[in-house]
Amino acid sequence: MIFSKSILVLPLLWLMAGCMVGPDYQRPDTHLPSKWSFAKQPDGAANSADLARWWRRFHDSKLNSLVEQAVVVNLDIKQAIARLQQARAERLAASASFWPWINGSGSLQDIDSNGSGPTSGHSRSYQGGASASWEIDFFGGNRRKMESTDAAVTAAAADLDAMRLSMAAEVALTYCQLRSFQDLLSVAHENLTTQEESAKITRDRRSAGFASDLDVANAAALVATTKAAIPSLETSVAQSTHAISVLLARPPADLTAFLSDRHPVPSDVSAVPTGVPSDLLRRRPDVRSAEANAHAATAQIGVAVADLFPKFSLNGSVNQQSANLSNWLSPSARVTSYGPSFNWALFQGGAIQANIRVQQALRAQSVLAYRKTVLTALQEVEDAMIASTNARKRHTALADAVSANRSAVEISLKLYTNGQIEFINVLNAQRSLLQSQSDFSQNKLALASNLISLYKALGGGW
Q1: What is the pairing mode between strands 334-343 and 311-322?
Q2: What is the C-alpha separation between 401 and 391, in angstroms, rounded?
């Protein structure tokens, strides 16, 4: 009958446990512009599907393969996966507070006593039992803790997405740098061939009495300067290859053969689906992570406030104790207890109030971090847009410069061979051609890098 009365109390306590102390989470206010300052807006808003697998827009099969391997096998990504698993396990641990806790115990004691009297000699005691306790979450402290761990799982999942996005961008950028170094190396070899031919012509003309030792020395100096640049470029090619291998969790030289053939720097001429600034709040994983952290910190205030109030529990225990194993399970050896209880921290020297202020300060920090993350995201998009736009403008001018300088080299060499101009004109033309070709190659890398930065800034589809 007493058990039945206790069971009837459970629904009442459950209904009483409907309130939750502490503030409810609300997304922090952010003042977002309605449109981007730079670049023409494409038709329609961007969505995750528009930006998913953005690296495929460069139409480079090797780049596709490298990125899609990296987002699976990279060691930093595996660490992020482990952190997500940790957050999920912590959430599971937090959910245990909603269930009764049951403990079992048992012992066997042999007691020897010396002397005279009824207690002297040897005796044995058998004891075993179980106890249970169920805390009723009257003021919502456990539910706030659960809310906080839910948000922590969301943040860890967003961090994993951010790591994948960052890794895809890093692999793509390193790959583009590799192709740019290979292109610069090809430019150096091409110019070296031309310069060596000019040096030979100069030596022949000196032998015939039509050129000076100064012309020969200038031609030799230009050849040597170009030769000196080649080993540095070869080093950069090798180091870029090693970096890509390590990003794929492979030994540094493992991809040397795969990446040794020369390919152009990847390019994407299609319009980037930038959408509107408000899209970043749901699409950028670092913004989602920062918001989830603010949510978790807000819920922790409720956990701290709940410590100001009493904690109610239902408790029960059953113990069997006997000196003889034969009657250990008999009703006469049983001791039971059950009923509600509460525990209230009435005075702890202000520790609870101080902890509430700590959690409020942590929430304020997380809100400020969220707002800074949003502003940084806006800046990264705007920066990438203007850089990409101006790199495209520069690309056309540099292409024209390469074409004009190539013609100048051909004309000046022909005029010099015919004795119509001084060798210094050939020298200047060849230097200008090498410089313009190098600038053009580096601008192709800038075009690719700015696009990669833009895709990353937009959230990349995760």
Answers
A1: antiparallel
A2: 15
Whether 115 is in a domain gets the answer no
Report helix, strand or coil for 74: coil
Please give the model's pTM, rounded to 2 decimal places: 0.85
| CA gap 95, 286 in Å, rounded | 27
In this prediction, residue 99 carries a pLDDT of: 87
| pLDDT higher than 70, residue 49 | no
- Taking the C-alpha atoms of residue 349 and residue 344, their distance in angstroms, rounded to an integer, is 14
* Nearest in space to 44 (alpha carbons), one of 381, 382, 275: 275
pLDDT band at 281 (very low <50, low <70, confident <90, very high): confident
The answer to whether residue 408 is domain-embedded is: yes
| Range with lowest mean pLDDT among 77-86, 141-150, 270-279 | 270-279
Residue 456's nearest CA partner among 157, 163, 40, 241 is: 163
Q: Quote the number of domains for the chain.
A: 1
Instruction: Evaluate whether 3 touches 121 at the Cβ level (below 8 Å).
Output: no
54 part of a folded domain? yes
* DSSP type of residue 15: H
Q: What is the CATH number of the domain that holds 363?
A: 1.20.1600.10
Which tokens in the block code for residue 189?
């070899």
CB contact at 8 A, 294 and 147: no
| Backbone dihedral angles phi then psi of residue 123, each to the nearest 5 degrees | -140, 165
SS3 content of the chain, % helix, strand, coil (to 5): 65, 10, 25
Phi and psi for 215 in degrees, rounded to 5?
-60, -45
Pairing relationship of beta strands 311-322 and 101-113 according to DSSP bridges: unpaired
Which tens digits make up the pLDDT trace of 327-370? 767 777 678 888 888 888 888 889 999 999 999 999 999 999 99
Domain residues for 406? 16-100+137-310+351-458
Q: In angstroms, what CA-CA distances link 398 with 405, 409, 439?
A: 10, 16, 7
Phi, psi for residue 74 in degrees, rounded to 5: -60, 140
- The answer to whether residue 64 sits within a structural domain is yes
- Report pLDDT for 362: 96
